[in-house]
Predict the 3D structure of the following.
Amino acid sequence: MNNELMVSAICWEMDAAVSASFAHAIPKTDDLLFFCPDCLVDVTASISINKNCFFKAPSLHRPGCRNEKRQSKSSGAGDPTKWPSANPDVIIPSHLGELPKRRQKQKPSMSERQALAKSVQPGVILHPGTLREVVDAWFTMTMSDRKKYPLTVGVAQLNYYDAFAFLSAGGDISSLGCGGVVVVASATSNKFGGSFYVTTRGRFQVGEQMLPIKARVRSNDPDFKLLEDGRKEVQIFLHGAPPALNSEGNYFHPPAVTPYTGFVIKPKSAG
Ligand SMILES: [Zn+2]
């Protein structure tokens, strides 16, 4: 019996299995078709009170479907959004950034659904990760997992091992390469006023000077808590446009912060 939430389904337009959180986040106007990989009925994305996204079948899964129990729970007593299950499988992001739309086609027949369901590789789920989600996944992976799990960055189909590069300092800032991969750098944290300033150990040449990248972590930043215990040695993860020199010309700003770019701070090593 399967008591867990249904966290992935097949998306006709994406030609792949996708995560419920992806499906829930896309605008309704995109009008994508999702269906159960087992019994092929239409499913729609929903969100529980615990903020977990899942797929449900408005017109019930077919008898014997491996996702049927999940449905019977929702159609039984009570509100499906109040399911106790708070721990759906954590999906490892397959993309840093938004997913491309692969095709736009007429709605499929049952046999076309079946053919697509068969062609989807088990366990391969498209899920667009934010920079933080992708860094979190990398941070907890073993070396062999990093080599195993694919991660698309921009147009480059990489794996977690190749999508992260340790900072190589000394040259021009344009050699940083944080647009194509996530750059990992050793850094130190210092408090000044109400903020922490995280400064890379590696520096880059500007004229006669060697300047670091420095990120300001304000009290409302998700990384603030990590630094509050007074730790000095951290890692900073950078992704996005090349860092720009600050107005006084004594350090570089990290890439601008969006869900998919900016910086993330982690402890110096796992654990
Ligand atoms: Zn089903």
The radius of gyration is 22 Å. The first helix runs from residue 20 to 25. Residues 36, 38-39, 41, 61, 65, 67 surround zinc ion (CB under 6 Å). The chain has two domains: 8-128, 164-267.
